[in-house]
Design goal:
The structure holds 2 protein chains of 2 kinds.
Chain A: E1 2-11, E2 14-24, E3 29-33, H1 40-47, E4 55-60, E5 63-64, H2 69-74, E6 76-79, H3 91-101, H4 108-119, H5 134-146, E7 152-156, H6 164-178, E8 182-187, H7 190-196, E9 199-204, E10 207-213, H8 214-221, E11 225-232, H9 235-243, E12 248-255, E13 261-268, H10 275-285, E14 289-294, H11 299-316
Parallel strand pairs in A: 3-8, 3-9, 6-7, 7-8
Antiparallel strand pairs in A: 1-2, 1-4, 4-5, 9-10, 11-13, 11-14, 12-13
Helix pairs in contact in A: 4-5, 8-11
Chain B: H1 2-12, H2 17-38, H3 46-64, H4 69-74, H5 77-81, H6 87-107, H7 111-119, H8 124-149, H9 155-178, H10 182-191, H11 198-201, H12 207-231
Helix pairs in contact in B: 1-6, 2-3, 2-6, 3-8, 3-9, 6-8, 6-12, 8-9, 8-12, 9-10
Classes of the chains: A alpha/beta, B mainly alpha.
């Protein structure tokens, strides 16, 4: 469990993190989403005790990171933005060092072998880290975080530098780990959040602009629903039928993708389900639906919208800051 | 602390640094030994240790310049500072690792007193005093070097700055010897890092001299841990 209360970090008069609160239960994988410089890494660095907070607290399990840092750190596995690797060591030496550093009690060889296997670095275990590719270094970084089997995993952009296949592997590893642990992972890759996380925290300019399930967030943003539909028949006769449906907000013609039909993107007014009326209207017009899928609001849309909302809210309040802060580190 | 000590000590020997340090120390010791004791036909080791201490001061930055600045530079400090260890433990682990390298190189010179003892005219206790004094002297300089290393991300700056400080201290020391103004005596005596062991070299064992070096080491190790701690409040 992680609980963060009113976390604030000022660098001089720059406000990198501006009062963040959230609580993450065991078994939850939470995506920390935000543009560069939003305060993601700073927040993570405070939770892990690397940076002090200007004010506020972070609890790891029941332990306050400020009051008893050593006990709190024992339960954290942290993969920083740049994996903290000693490149002059071999992978095995390095992880043995981390094992000693964290004063792990588990049986050394079995535990480390299990981690090697889990992140797929068994075959490079005896190579110098210096000679590893970026993807393998990233994996070693993740391995380092897993040493000691910590309850809380904090991963700052864990799949950076991996190739597509590795990305899928590592995401699966994280998903599996997340079943019995508390995981926060930061990213600005939106599909990543969609693939791994049940819950998303969107952060911008040091504040949380949204907190919820990816799906709920979508609804919160526009409340409209988008459908991609493939309908038989001529565009000229079908389009007016579609536009005539109650609650239809807009009809975008996507063009012919299959001969004898046309694809449309339909946007409904907030709170109205047009699927049934759509079916009946088309039936009456003698056209058939070949395909229908929920286009939803993509996380991209949500993200752009939420951060824009937060910006305007702030400028309306007359507290707009001249420039987005650069995140330290 | 133990884990850091182990890693740091091993890492001196993963790069040439550890070997180079030991090689230089041993070469200079035996070189001076040959010039002074063999050619000069004397069993007195005091000249040898005079050179040895200056030499060690000059090459200690080899050991210390990377010790902490490299952690900043490679961001590995994030691993250390988020691990369940105290900051002072981190600093002490590094300090003792470097001190062990110095101890090793001093151990490599122990053949000299053995040879001298076999020749005759060798004084046992003054030699022990000299070795001890060199060790304490090294510890103080190491701690200063580590502290300087904690000030910057660049190992180059850290190395140069350490050299500047160590040579500066030598200059102060020589000035104290040359100018007997009340000012240089008052301030310089305290800063006389090098000549403080003149007594020991001449066979006068003075506990307060050892205490001086031990305190310098303790103060700078403490300051180093504060620097690491301060980074969190940046």
């Amino acid at each position: 469990m992680i609980e963060v209360r009113d976390l604030v970090k000022h660098y001089g008069n720059k406000h990198a993190v501006n009062g963040i609160s959230f609580r993450i239960e065991k078994g939850e994988i939470v995506g920390f989403l935000g543009p560069n410089g939003a305060g993601k890494s700073t927040t993570m660095n405070m939770i892990t005790g690397y940076l002090s907070a200007t004010s506020g607290t972070a609890l790891i399990g029941d332990v306050d990171i400020l009051e008893d840092p050593i006990a709190a750190k024992r339960n954290i596995g942290y993969l920083p933005e740049q994996p903290p690797l000693y490149v002059d060591m071999s992978v095995r030496e390095y992880l043995n060092f981390v094992y000693d550093l964290k004063k792990v009690q588990l049986p050394r060889k079995a535990h480390l072998d299990e981690i090697f296997e889990l992140v797929g670095i068994t075959h490079v275990a005896d190579r110098l880290i210096r000679n590893l590719s970026k993807g393998y270094r990233q994996r070693v970084g993740l391995a380092q975080a897993l040493v000691g089997d910590p309850e809380v995993l904090i991963l700052d952009e864990p799949t950076v530098g991996l190739d597509p296949i590795q990305i899928i592997e590592i995401r699966n590893v994280i998903k599996n780990l997340g079943r019995e642990r508390t995981v926060i992972l930061s990213t600005h890759i939106l599909p990543e959040v969609q693939a791994i996380c049940e819950r998303v925290l969107v952060i911008n300019n040091g504040i949380i602009v949204a907190d919820g399930r990816a799906a709920e967030l979508g609804a919160r943003v526009d409340g409209v629903r988008r459908l991609n539909v493939r309908i038989t028949g001529d565009v000229k006769s079908i389009a007016p039928v579609l536009r005539a449906i109650d609650g239809m907000k807009s009809v975008d013609i996507l063009g012919e993708k299959e001969s004898g039909s046309c694809d449309y993107q339909l946007t409904s007014a907030p709170g109205i389900d047009i699927r049934q009326p759509l079916f009946h209207a088309l039936e009456k017009a003698g056209a058939a639906i070949l395909e229908m899928r929920d286009a939803g609001a993509s996380l991209e849309d949500i993200f752009v919208k939420l951060t824009a909302e937060a910006e305007t809210a702030k400028s309306k309040g007359g507290r707009m800051r001249s420039k987005k802060k650069e995140e330290k580190d | 602390m133990k884990a850091i000590f182990k890693r740091e000590f091993a890492s001196f020997f993963r790069s040439p640094v550890g070997y180079v340090f030991i090689a230089i120390t041993i070469l200079v010791f035996y070189g001076v030994f040959y010039l002074v004791n063999i050619t000069g036909e004397t069993a007195d080791m005091s000249t040898l240790f005079l050179f040895a201490q200056m030499l060690i001061a000059l090459i200690i930055p080899l050991l210390t310049m990377n010790l902490i600045s490299n952690e900043y530079n490679k961001k590995t400090d994030q691993l250390l500072l988020t691990a369940p260890v105290s900051v002072l433990g981190i600093v002490l682990g590094k300090f003792f690792a470097a001190l062990s390298v110095i101890a090793l190189s001093l151990a490599g010179t122990l053949l000299i007193p053995v040879v001298l003892a076999s020749i005759g005219g060798f004084q046992f206790w003054p030699t022990v005093g000299n070795y001890l004094s060199t060790f304490f002297f090294s510890a103080a300089f190491l701690a200063i070097g580590i502290f300087i290393s904690s000030l910057t991300e660049s190992n180059f700056i850290s190395g140069i700055l350490s050299w500047a400080v160590f040579i500066g201290l030598l200059v102060v020391d020589l000035m104290v010897g040359s100018y007997d103004t009340p000012f240089t005596i008052a301030t310089g005596k305290w800063l006389a890092f090098y000549s403080r062991f003149d007594n020991v070299r001449l066979g006068i064992f003075n506990f307060s001299d050892f205490l001086f070096y031990a305190s310098i080491a303790a103060i700078f190790l403490f300051l180093t841990s504060r620097m690491l701690e301060k980074k969190r409040y940046a």
